[in-house]
């Protein structure tokens, strides 16, 4: 588990020295959960006992904080604890989902399979994030480049035209006058304009990071006609995959739903809690999820088939895969539509500035004729 291998890690987590509470950890470590699951599963499949497998991973680990977490696991195992109990001492490095899967798999003797399934789950999360990021990269570059061009025109080009038009006299078109006055003011105080832009950018970033603003933005996105439906599908796909992972690892339905609730957003967490309560009272999972809006017509039929055949975990996994493909198609469509629209908008803005700069010249030429 060398730190140089990319895209095989969990979220950044603090290392917790053995015997010390997690909240006292002072140093952050990007614990490679996906790689840990893959390598430990391979060693266990090879017939190496769990304690020796963890020792092997610890000995080969070059990253000191990660090795410290692994030493904590081996120490806990030597004291008679199970792997899931040892992981609970490091909640910053191991997610509740992984701990629940390992705890259930220990009862069935399927720990390597649970590790492989969790590694596949982390790979899915990484792939989903990469798709969303790649879909946003080109629009972000296009917007950034266009803003730089507009800034260059406003700071360096427009003030020069304003100086030329001052000596020409005559009345300028209204929009051209506004643009030239703005350019003249920016050209006279470039550093003040730059500081103002930085202050506006900092204010926007601060607002976006504020919990209340982010919550309001999230509610607006969820209510948007097209985006809201796709966000709901992403959340449902994550729920189905998480539930399927836990059920296939041997976790009972109610504990699996309770563990999945920790990974859901606020809206779905509330609905999932109500559905969990109904399942605990004896209602079927498909009926409880349908009653609380946690299922679609396609996934409803899949879940009911899974309940009848006893393959509920695998059917939930297939439902998540079904919506993965739909979201992939939507992301591709957005990339094909948003980029041309942005190019049109930014081209119009830049072209408008250029036309407004030259419009007084055209007006003077018409007067001369």
Features:
single chain; 369 residues; mainly alpha; Receptor-associated Protein; 2 domains; two-stranded antiparallel ribbon; 15 helices
Provide structural commentary:
There is one protein chain. By secondary structure, this protein is mostly helical. The chain has 2 domains: 62 residues, no CATH class; 258 residues, Type II secretion system (T2SS), domain F (Receptor-associated Protein). Helix content is 77%, strand content 2%. The protein is built from 15 helices and 2 strands. Helix 13 packs antiparallel against helix 14. The longest helix is centred in the C-terminal third of the chain and has 57 residues. The N terminus is likely disordered. It comes from Aquabacterium olei.
Mean pLDDT: 78
Separate helix tally: 15
Secondary-structure element order, N to C: EEHHHHHHHHHHHHHHH
CATH level-1 class of the largest domain: Mainly Alpha
In terms of DSSP E residues, the strand content is: under 5%
Largest sheet properties: 2 strands, antiparallel
* Total number of strands: 2
Distance between the termini: 78 Å
Give the class from helix and strand content and strand pairing.
mainly alpha
CATH superfamily of the largest domain: Type II secretion system (T2SS), domain F
The CATH topology label of the largest domain is: Receptor-associated Protein
Transmembrane segments: 135-158, 188-208, 337-359
Family: Belongs to the GSP F family.
Membrane topology: Multi-pass membrane protein
Domain Type II secretion system protein GspF: 36-159, 240-360
């Amino acid at each position: 588990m060398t730190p140089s291998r990319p895209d095989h890690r969990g979220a950044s987590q603090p290392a917790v020295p053995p015997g010390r509470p997690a909240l006292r950890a002072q140093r952050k470590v990007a614990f490679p959960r996906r790689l840990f699951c893959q390598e430990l599963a391979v060693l266990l499949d090879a017939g190496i006992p769990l304690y020796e497998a963890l020792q092997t991973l610890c000995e080969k680990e070059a990253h000191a904080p990660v090795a410290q977490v692994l030493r904590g696991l081996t120490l806990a195992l030597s004291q008679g604890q199970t792997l899931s109990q040892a992981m609970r001492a490091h909640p910053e490095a191991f997610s509740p989902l992984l701990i629940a899967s390992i705890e259930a798999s220990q009862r069935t003797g399927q720990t390597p399979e649970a590790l492989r399934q969790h590694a596949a789950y982390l790979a899915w999360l990484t792939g989903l994030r990469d798709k969303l990021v790649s879909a946003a990269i080109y629009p972000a570059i296009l917007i950034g480049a266009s803003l730089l061009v507009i800034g260059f025109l406003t700071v360096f080009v427009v003030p020069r035209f304003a100086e030329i038009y001052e000596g020409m006299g005559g009345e300028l078109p209204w929009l051209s006058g506004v643009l030239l006055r703005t350019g003249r003011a920016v050209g006279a105080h470039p550093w003040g304009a730059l500081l103002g832009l930085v202050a506006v950018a900092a204010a926007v970033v601060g607002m976006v990071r504020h919990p209340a603003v982010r919550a309001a933005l999230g509610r607006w996105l969820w209510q948007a006609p097209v985006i809201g439906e796709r966000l709901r599908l992403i959340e449902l796909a994550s729920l189905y995959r998480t539930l399927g992972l836990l059920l296939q690892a041997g976790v009972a339905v109610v504990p699996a739903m309770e563990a999945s609730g920790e990974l859901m957003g606020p809206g779905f967490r509330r609905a999932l809690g109500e559905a969990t309560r109904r399942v605990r009272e004896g209602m079927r999972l498909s009926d409880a999820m349908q009653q609380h809006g946690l299922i679609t017509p396609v996934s409803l039929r899949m879940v009911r088939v899974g309940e009848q055949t006893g393959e509920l975990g695998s059917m939930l996994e297939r439902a998540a895969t079904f919506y993965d493909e739909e979201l992939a198609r939507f992301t591709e469509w957005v990339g094909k539509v948003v980029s041309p629209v942005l190019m049109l908008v930014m081209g119009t803005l830049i072209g408008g500035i250029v036309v407004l700069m030259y419009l007084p010249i055209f007006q003077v030429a018409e007067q001369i004729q």
